[in-house]
Amino acid sequence: MGRVVFDISMSLDGYMTAAGQTADEPLGPGGQRLNEWAFGTDEQNQDYLASQVAGLGAVITGRTTYDTSLPWWGADGPSGPARRPVFVLTHSAPQDPPTGGVYTFVVDGIESALSQAQAAAGDQAVCIMGGANIGQQFLAAGLVEEISVHLVPVLFGAGTRMFDHLGPDHLQLEALGAVATPAAIHTRFGVPPRQ
């Protein structure tokens, strides 16, 4: 079974969205800055992204991320032409998912989503991406083996903090590596199994 990775782009001051989110700007005004590294022309960032997609078996995300990202993802999902399966945690499936889409809607919790994603991924990685709430749930449940943070050189000052609400206990991580580019520092941390 492949590793379970929580993957997020984050501002230097710890926000994964800017303040003032709206339907038109789901990451808040200026929040799209967090994803520019993935869509720019910098060869180092493009190589990094391609290597991550090559090792990707499946994606887990939440309904809000699905709803706000679908206009960019389309039927192929966040992995684009690679068309990796996406498991969307939700209370109810949408009425009109894209025809031929890679999406499966999971209404019975994070463990079920993870089980389905791992079965689909085989030996490749399962990537949890999207909102803070989903990441916090998986981390609190001890279901994450690696945290991948794309640290973007911007200070938002306010927004949605990524690592709030994880409880009072410290979680010692293992530094696995970093790749520095002008648009982001791509960091990876191992998460020890819960005792």
UniProtKB/TrEMBL annotation:
It comes from the Bacteria. Pfam families: RibD_C. One of its GO terms (molecular function) is 5-amino-6-(5-phosphoribosylamino)uracil reductase activity. Residues 4-181 form the Bacterial bifunctional deaminase-reductase C-terminal domain. GO terms for biological process: riboflavin biosynthetic process. This is Bacterial bifunctional deaminase-reductase C-terminal domain-containing protein. It comes from Microlunatus phosphovorus (strain ATCC 700054 / DSM 10555 / JCM 9379 / NBRC 101784 / NCIMB 13414 / VKM Ac-1990 / NM-1).
